[in-house]
């Protein structure tokens, strides 16, 4: 009989899932902070049209992901340590 491989890849270890979640949270935080700070505010001289606000949001998200990939603010590290400590029954 031919063995059929599973359709889904094996799930990541809990520590890897925690790290990914911590990085995702830091990315979301940084993206919102960049948007609130007006870093990607459209220039008045161009008047970018219909989709400018949406694409500006995508750019802020991409910039936040790049920042986290390079170390970010360190929030992901703190979140990860806290969640791992909680998982092992210690107080963060």
Describe the structure.
By secondary structure, the protein is mainly α. It has a domain at about 15-35 and about 50-85. About 60% of the residues lie in helices and about 0% in strands. It has three helices and no strands. Helix 1 packs across helix 2 (about 50-70) and helix 1 (about 15-35) packs antiparallel against helix 3. The longest helix is centred in the first third of the chain and has 24 residues, at about 15-35. The chain is flat. The protein starts with 13 loop residues before the first helix and ends in a 5-residue tail after the last helix. The relative contact order is 0.17. The model has no long low-confidence stretch (mean pLDDT about 85).
Question: Which of globular, elongated, flat, extended, rod-shaped describes the shape?
Answer: flat
Task: Tell me what portion of residues adopts beta-strand conformation.
Answer: under 5%
Largest sheet: none
Radius of gyration: 19 Å
**Run of helices and strands:** HHH
In short:
The chain contains 3 helices and no strands. By secondary structure, it is mostly helical.
Which keywords apply here?
92 residues; mainly alpha; 3 helices; 60% helix; flat
Topology:
Elements: H1 14-37, H2 52-69, H3 75-87
Helix pairs in contact: 1-2, 1-3
């Amino acid at each position: 009989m031919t063995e059929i491989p599973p359709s889904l890849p094996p799930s990541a270890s809990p520590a890897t899932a925690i790290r990914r979640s911590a990085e995702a949270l830091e990315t979301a935080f940084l993206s919102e902070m960049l948007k609130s700070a007006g870093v990607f505010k459209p220039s008045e001289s161009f008047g970018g049209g219909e989709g400018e606000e949406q694409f500006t949001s995508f750019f802020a998200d991409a910039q936040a992901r790049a920042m986290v990939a390079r170390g970010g603010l360190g929030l992901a590290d703190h979140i990860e340590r806290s969640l791992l400590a909680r998982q092992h029954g210690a107080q963060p």
